[in-house]
Amino acid sequence: MRLAIIGGTGVYDPGVLSGVREVNVETVYGKAGALVGTYKGQEIAFMARHGYGHTVPPHLINYRANIAALKMLGVERVIATSAVGSLNTAMPPGSFVFMDQFIDFAKSEVRTFFDGGDHGVVHTDYTTPYCPDIRARLIENARQMGFVASDGGCYVCTDGPRFETPAEIRMFRILGGDVVGMTGVPEVVLAREAGMCYASIAMVTNWAAGISGQPLGHAEVVEIMQANGEKLRRLMMATLEGLGSERTCGCGRDAHPMPWLGTEA
Ligand code: HPA
Hints:
265 residues; Rossmann fold; eleven-stranded mixed beta sheet
């Protein structure tokens, strides 16, 4: 199977996939589960980043196991979803942002598959961190569907699980951030190291801390995600359906062999 969805907050079920089966993959980084089903003749893996009942907080997500498992399943292209707060008045709550850059403020220890020793040392290019081909299709489909969407944007990743302070948000704005979330890095980093195409659909759920003057809560994030769930699903499925079988984007260009991943459990 070559396509996968990683569902973030508020996206916990594969919905439109048929003949869904559960797959558990044992990786050298730990276990990762996915649901695998079919959509219009294509097999698609669905993974819930926070677990199926939002039980795993951002700082405890086993990103390496998740991406390694997708790689072991043969996945080449990933569309991820993420809830984000907005720092940019041109990106209001309820709109989509198709990021083209990120700034990594996460301090998590895991940041690579290549830890030296037998796994080697690798310095991967992130000039174009998100797959330009999938991004272009997402933007085109979102526009055709009449959704409010931003073509490009800089995602700032924090560790969470707390929301930011207004002072941090002011700093992120000065640095060029547009939206903020807690999970986009290292996921995009590991996907690129593994040679996959990766693009993310960010749904703006709130103004970032200090912008609207209102305190932030997880409930409002989930509420906006649920209110927009159907749009998100339509956009993902139309985009996955339209991807040709050959990759021409160059995302896999830098991939280094990872023989230690072995095969599907
Ligand atoms: N900050 C960080 N993560 C988020 C936010 C936010 O404001 N909204 C949704 N995810």
